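>> Question from a student workshop board

For tomorrow's exercise we were told to take the sequence and the ligand below, predict the bound structure, and bring the output to class. My setup keeps failing. Could a helper post the expected result so I can at least see what it should look like? The ligand is nicotinamide-adenine-dinucleotide.
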Amino acid sequence: MVASIGHYINNKPVAGKSGRTGDITNPATGEVTAKVAFATEAEIDEAVQIAKKAQLAWAATPPLRRQRVMFNLKSLIEKHTDDLARHLSLEHGKTFDDAKGEVGRGLEVVEFACAIGHHMKGDFTEQVATDMDSWSIRQPLGVVAGITPFNFPIMIPCWMGAMAVATGNAFILKPSEKDPSAPMLLAELYTQAGAPPGIFQVVNGDKVAVDALLKHPDVPAISFVGSTAIGEYVYHTGTQHNKRVQALCGAKNHMVVMPDADLDQVTDALIGAGYGAAGERCMAISVAVAVGDIGDKLIHKLAPRVQALKIGPGLDPQSEMGPLVTRQHRDKVMGYVDQGVKEGAKLVVDGRGLKLQGYENGNFMGGCLFDHVTPDMTIYKDEIFGPVLSVVRSGNFDEAIKLVNDHAYGNGTAIFTRDGDSARAFASNVKVGMVGINVPIPVPVAYHSFGGWKASVFGDHGIYGMEGVRFYTKLKTITARWPTGIRSGAEFNFKARA
Ligand code: NAD
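>> Workshop helper replied:
Here is what the output should look like for this input. Compare the format with yours to find the bug.
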């Protein structure tokens, strides 16, 4: 039975009207499980008009009451964690435990939003001039939109939506067309949590829906997470239409392994960060930089672990790594492996031939491990977004940090060492937005902020924490004097303060 997924407008699911749909497939079996509607420009406009009306009352709702909705949402997400995670496993392919972890990382931002009254409180200065006070406040932008990628269908909508809604905006989510079921359930949870109709809506679709949001005159801000090519397009199109845009994009995250690092710890870290979620994480480690003479030892430890990865459907509790999201994406990743071999890298573990009995139509591939990768190779330059780890050899610390700094992407990075001085020099000199010291995937907690540098981001502001509050609000500064200050009569001179 193939389900139909429409949109979630005005606090209820509605059918799509365009007649255009996309297939949702179970990546483990290749079976089409649902058809998702692709919105027209008119359907986007309908959602925006509903949101615009609803937002006025929502912005005027005291933050304490808005945060109570967030408290309710927090409980509902906790209650429905398994339901959300099941959707993620069935449409994205990740393992059930990893999917629950994803829900948890989204939940943290909802929890941060539970204190929005505190986060939004302004600054006040008494007596900026004689008998004159000044204060700054942050006010919501209006109707804001989020465009999200396939790889975190619940976490990233929580990063954007919770911050946007709690700060008093109405939020329209355009999720990835590959795995929309978890975002649709999230919308239902907002309704149950007490969000008024029109405050959190989901409009499914493709480029038509994205373009309609980017050009809509009543949408002043766009958050985007996805690939660099589309993020750059979203940033330029949105800003051309005078919008505030934050676009968080692709990555090629390096882990620098210093000669003094504990190689067992490093191996565990690389296996989890390189092959977890089949490498389909923007914070996955895809390059290990072996510094000094540890390259052979590292390969020797990694190779059997990559070969032994337990690969299977996400809902099988034995699986450590699931399938890739689509057949097309798996073939693209395999194409990169072919290219790496052609360009002269040494393929130490070849996962291309993996066959799983009973899952012949699934998008599975085994883990791949390359050694002697060099910066001129395509597999080094491009984001592969699959279970492929490249080991690069580097003579010393300076060469290693130069590699990281010269790479086009700058999302995350890590150093593994026991030397505080190397770690400190790395953290202060590396040109990357998120840095781990003996932590392979340094995704910041909700009260810090997430964001990369270089080709991993367009626009300004991280995506949650106080950066999120700033992105979704505009600053207003008021300077006031009360009548006693003008008792002495009119003033004609523009005076210096104080
Ligand atoms: P994608 O760029 O293909 O899609 C992202 C969103 O853009 C989706 O909603 C999609 O429907 C929409 N889209 C796709 N093509 C479009 C077009 N031509 N015009 C307008 N909109 C379009 O990305 P993806 O494959 O879903 O996700 C994987 C990418 O996301 C990777 O590059 C990964 O690194 C990146 N990512 C980055 C972060 C981060 O925080 N930096 C987090 C997660 C994922």
